[in-house]
Specification:
It contains 8 helices and no strands. It has 209 residues and is mostly helical. The longest helix has 40 residues, at 169-208. The relative contact order is 0.10.
């Protein structure tokens, strides 16, 4: 698929847009074990929260209290009985993982700030349409569910939609381009019919004053 056939004439692939690091690998299922693990853990957490009624803070505190108590007693008894200590892995975040995460967050934050500035100053009509539709969809979804379920659903979408999009990119792009072009034509027609009239009315009011 050529760049001219892509939505919004984008030049980069989905993997490049997502940062091209470990985050992109997880979202596009290139590290399947890690992606599946995240989905399973979040599903288990969602079920626990929904059934038990725990809050995030209380559950986290209880889990860490239980974990540290078990490990502490295990280590103390092992020292007394001359047994091996708990088989804990070395807990350490590599510099590469931190840099990848920081770069991804920085790029996304700068993109959001740049888009916000363009919208606020009326520079990018296309971005205004995209953001407006996205916020409307979020508003509708948010009114239908609670924050916890919305968070889990959003995570599932983040870990599935980009991967599906990458695999079915050609078909999705062709359908999206048709709809996007029709929406742009509708916006241009609305702008010509109503914005021009409003501008003309303002000029007339200024002349009269």
């Amino acid at each position: 698929m050529g760049s001219s056939d892509r939505l919004f004439n984008r030049q980069r692939t989905i993997y490049e847009i997502l940062g091209g690091g470990i985050v992109a690998d997880v979202m596009l299922w290139r590290k399947k074990n890690l992606t599946v693990g995240i989905l399973v853990v979040t599903l288990a957490a969602w079920v626990v929260f929904e059934i038990s009624g725990y809050t995030l803070l209380s559950l986290t505190s209880n889990v860490f209290l239980l974990l540290f108590t078990i490990l502490f007693l295990w280590a103390k008894s092992a020292a007394i009985l001359n047994r091996p200590a708990p088989p804990l892995p070395h807990l350490h975040l590599s510099e590469e993982m931190v840099n990848d995460a920081a770069t991804f967050i920085c790029d996304r934050a700068n993109a959001v700030l740049s888009a916000s500035e363009d919208i606020a100053l009326g520079r990018d009509s296309r971005m205004f349409i995209k953001v407006g539709l996205s916020l409307f969809i979020i508003s509708v979804i948010g009114s239908l569910t609670d924050f916890l379920t919305l968070g889990y659903t959003s995570l599932v979408l983040v870990l599935t939609v980009p991967a599906l999009y990458e695999r079915c990119e050609r078909h999705i792009e062709s359908c999206a381009l048709v709809g996007y072009r029709k929406l742009l034509k509708l916006y241009v027609r609305f702008k010509e019919e109503y914005f021009a009239k409003i501008h003309k009315w303002i000029l007339e009011k200024k002349k009269l004053s």
